[in-house]
Amino acid sequence: MTSPLVSIRGLEKRFDLSGSLLEQITFEGGRFRRKKEAVHAINGVDLEVQRGEALCVVGESGCGKSTIARTVMGLLSPSAGEIHYDGQRIDNLERKASLPYRRKMQMIFQNPYASLNPRMTIQQTLEEPIRFHHPDWSPIQVRDKIHEVMHSVGIDPDWGSRFGHEFSGGQRQRIAIARALAVDPEFIVADEPISALDVSIQAQVLNLLMDAQESRGLTYLFITHDLAVVEHFGTRVAVMYLGRVCELADTKTLFATPRHPYTQALLSAIPKLEDDRPNHIRLKGEVPTPVNLPSGCVFHGRCPYANERCRQEVPGLITTDGGNQVACHAVEEGRL
């Protein structure tokens, strides 16, 4: 296998909730104590994104999907771990040294109503990244590039003088995609790019992303909660729960033979027309808080197959005979 384009190793991200030093100090049992709390959003994630693929990261709200996206893009600093791009570690680079990677890596945000500057015309929105990364380009080169990317996403170049509020959600997201493509990136992080759009528009935007991948040789890290989109779009799928990767497999394998109990529960919730589909798996309990993570496997409180080892020992990813990578003691021991 060729070396991955993006490699994430032991990634962790914590958000401090403790406040100032004075707010951390409490008086208990006749003694002063310092109490620190943090949201453990990502907890030791290892992922590799191969060139030309679309790696989908799925899971319920609060599992750390968007935090991974923002950390990979440098919008958040990791608390621990490393991020490598084409063999070069990038999470610890100074601003000037990271500039070449800013052009190679672009992001499409979830909400097209918030990701476009309301004070800038569409022309200015698309000009900004081009002029920043190509300061030596002439006005004619910039104009031609803007027209090219607008045509590629189905936007009329005459729209350039208009503002974002004049467009629908689907049109705004096309503009956001054009902005990401304007600097000819290799790698795009798409953070739920169609979830804020009408269902009738979602397929158009998804097909646009697939066409761009084929014509430009793009690599995607695609964050979503929609399993129907994953089955249609993804090359491989990483299933997350409470900041950890539960299962990782190619799309066909995962949907045909899910191995982790959480993945099985997720896939059983997809509406289907067949009468012989398996019964919907109802998980017991509630999702634990990421402030106080449970010991051992983070899923053990809701898992019907959990035993004492699951409650004490954190499972690592193992490769099954079917090709899935699963973090589950029950699968490892043959109980599932």
From TrEMBL:
Q: Which UniProt keywords apply?
A: ATP-binding, Nucleotide-binding, Transport
What is catalyzed by this enzyme?
a dipeptide(out) + ATP + H2O = a dipeptide(in) + ADP + phosphate + H(+)
GO BP annotation list = peptide transport; transmembrane transport
Classification via InterPro entries: AAA+_ATPase, ABC_transp_ATP-bind, ABC_transporter-like_ATP-bd, ABC_transporter-like_CS, Oligopep_ABC_C, P-loop_NTPase
Q: Please give the Gene Ontology molecular function terms for this protein.
A: ATP binding; ATP hydrolysis activity
Top EC class of this enzyme: translocase
Query: Domain named ABC transporter: which ranges?
Result: 25-267
Do you know which SUPFAM superfamilies this protein is assigned to?
A: P-loop containing nucleoside triphosphate hydrolases
Specify one Pfam family.
oligo_HPY
Q: Which domain of life is it from?
A: Bacteria
Record EC number: 7.4.2.9
Question: Which purpose does this protein serve, as stated in its record?
Answer: Part of the ABC transporter DppABCDF involved in the uptake of various di/tripeptides. Is also involved in the uptake of phaseolotoxin, a toxic tripeptide inhibiting the enzyme ornithine carbamoyltransferase. Responsible for energy coupling to the transport system.
In the record, the note on similarity to other proteins reads: Belongs to the ABC transporter superfamily.
Query: Assembly state and interactors?
Result: The complex is composed of two ATP-binding proteins (DppD and DppF), two transmembrane proteins (DppB and DppC) and a solute-binding protein (DppA1-A5). Five orthologous SBPs (DppA1-A5) are present in P.aeruginosa, which increases the substrate specificity of the DppBCDF transporter.
Q: What is this protein called?
A: ABC-type dipeptide transporter
Q: What is the lineage of its organism?
A: Bacteria, Pseudomonadati, Pseudomonadota, Gammaproteobacteria, Pseudomonadales
